[in-house]
Structures are given as structure tokens and as C-alpha cells.
Amino acid sequence: MNLYEEIKKVAHDLYEKSGRIGGRDFENWLEAEKIVLAGKKAAPAKKKTAEAKAPDKTAVKKTATKATAKTKKK
């Protein structure tokens, strides 16, 4: 779903939740934009957090290689 369609859906949901009060279409649209755009900004941050928590596979390999090399030297 593109950005316009997402905002349109959220604006309509706000209209429904407010009791279908007419004349607030512009306010509902602006509020929907804030909600959708805030969700878009939060989504990449969540992804980065998950990536930061995952161990770096190359770091594990390098550590294992160094430990193996030290063992072989002795």
C-alpha cells in the first residue's frame, strides 16, 4: 500500500472513531499523516535495534581464528 492510501485509510478510521463528525476532514487528514509518518520513522529504528542485538558473525569467526592460531603456536 502506498503512502497516500495508508493516510487515507487512517483518516477514514479517525472519522469513524470520532462519530462521523463532518467538516473535520482536513484535521483528520493531518492527524493521519502524523500517525502514518511516525510509524514509518519507527519501523527502521526497530530494524536497526534488532540488527544491533544480533551478534556479528564475522567477529565470532575472527575470534575463533585467533584462538585457534594461539593454540597451534604453543
Structure notes:
- The protein has 74 residues and is mostly helical.
- The protein has one domain.
- It has 3 helices and no strands.
- The radius of gyration is 25 Å and the shape is elongated.
- 5% of the residues are buried.
At a glance:
By secondary structure, this protein is mainly α. It has helices at residues 3-17, 25-53, 57-73.
Number of helices: 3
Q: Sheet with the most strands?
A: none
Beta-sheet strand percentage? under 5%
Spatial extent as radius of gyration: 25 Å
Shape, per Cα inertia axes: elongated
- What percent of the residues sit in helical stretches (DSSP H or I)? over 70%
Integer average pLDDT: 79
Order of helices and strands: HHH
What is the oligomer described by this structure? single chain
Low-confidence stretches: none
Number of domains: 1
* Computed structural class: mainly alpha
Question: First CA to last CA: what distance?
Answer: 61 Å
Q: Report the count of strand segments.
A: 0
Defining key terms:
74 residues; single chain; mainly alpha
Secondary structure blueprint with pairings:
Layout: H1 3-17, H2 25-53, H3 57-73
